[in-house]
Amino acid sequence: RWLFNQAVCTLYAFCGVLFGLCSLTSLTVLSTVCCLKVCYPAYGRCWDVLFDLYLHTSLGAHLTAWPIFAPLAEWGSYGPEPYGTACCITWKASSREATLYILALFIFCYLLPCLLILVSYSLILWTVRVSRRAVRQH
């Protein structure tokens, strides 16, 4: 069972969500920058990439802020996991707002970043394949 009080549970879950979303956002930004550098080399001047990286990471930071702080504002909630040994987002939706929070979290913080990563690496593989064919022809 969870050995600490609700405040520690909330802090533990908050940190888990924060670090998880920061990790996925970092991977998304990394895949996007790699895609831009490989697929659009003319676009990849040093200052342009640094500026775009800043824009993407600051945008990612703002996009990932709402799911972290939403349970603290009573939209969704943090609580013990089903086994009761740790704390995370309360996945059993008890209200319409909680259901909407979980659905928005899934779409905007998991599905869209994963799709962006998949598209980025697919474009990289496609570009490598096309350039490999071009080298073979020469």
TrEMBL record:
What gene name is given for the protein in this entry? Opn5_0
Domain G-protein coupled receptors family 1 profile: start-end pairs: 1-138
One Gene Ontology term, aspect cellular component = membrane
Entry keyword Chaperone: no
Say which domain of life the source belongs to. Eukaryota
PANTHER family according to UniProt: OPSIN
The regions listed as transmembrane in this protein's record are: 100-128
Q: How does it sit in the membrane?
A: Multi-pass membrane protein
**Any idea which UniProt keywords this protein has?**
G-protein coupled receptor, Membrane, Receptor, Transducer, Transmembrane, Transmembrane helix
According to its UniProt record, where is this protein mainly located?
Answer: membrane
Q: Where, subcellularly, is it found?
A: Membrane
* Designated name of the protein: OPN5 protein
Q: Which GO terms describe its molecular function?
A: G protein-coupled receptor activity
